[in-house]
Design brief:
Length: 156
């Protein structure tokens, strides 16, 4: 049995490809790659087909994570059937996903950050209009949340 996890942000060029890359690495390091299918997507379509933002690529590279091969795509109706867990980076993503979810679709939609276990951290803030520190913060948050996520899913 594989667990299928989809990370979602707005553009699919900064936060969700970062979370995807971080989770992929944690899963690989734990020797669990065969047990997961991992992807990311955006609720918006402005950047479809593009590689991740260079600043996100750089911040990930500093943590030994290569996200350069990802290409942005939009969330599609079939995602709500094919993924077990769809994880939103912020509250707007969560609302948009809830609106997009077809009736009767099986995916569970949750915020990503609560998996880090710190109630003060609800969201991964959008770093798009920020500086390098904001992209590093995105990686840090993704690491905390994805570690908690993997712990929780492995305990099942
Ligand atoms: P992301 O960041 O949702 O983390 O990929 C953004 C990327 C692009 C835009 C906004 C946020 N944009 O407005 O184009």
């Amino acid at each position: 049995m594989t667990t299928k996890v989809l990370f979602v942000c707005l553009g699919n060029i900064c936060r969700s490809p970062t979370a995807e890359g971080v989770f992929r690495k944690l899963v690989a390091d734990a020797g669990l790659s065969a047990q997961f299918e991992i992807d990311s997507a955006g609720t918006g379509s402005w950047h479809v087909g593009e590689a991740p933002d260079k600043r996100a690529q750089q911040a990930c590279r500093a943590h030994g994570i290569d996200i350069s091969k990802h290409r942005a795509r939009r969330v599609r109706a079939a995602d709500f059937e094919s993924f077990d867990l769809i994880l939103a980076c912020d509250e707007q993503n969560l609302r948009d996903l809830t609106d997009m979810k077809p009736q009767g679709a099986t995916a569970e939609i949750r915020l990503l950050m609560p998996f880090a276990g710190n109630p003060a951290d609800r969201v991964v803030p959008d770093p798009y209009y920020g500086g390098p520190g904001d992209f590093e913060n995105t990686v840090q948050r993704a690491c905390a949340a994805c570690a908690g996520l993997l712990r929780q899913l492995s305990a099942k």
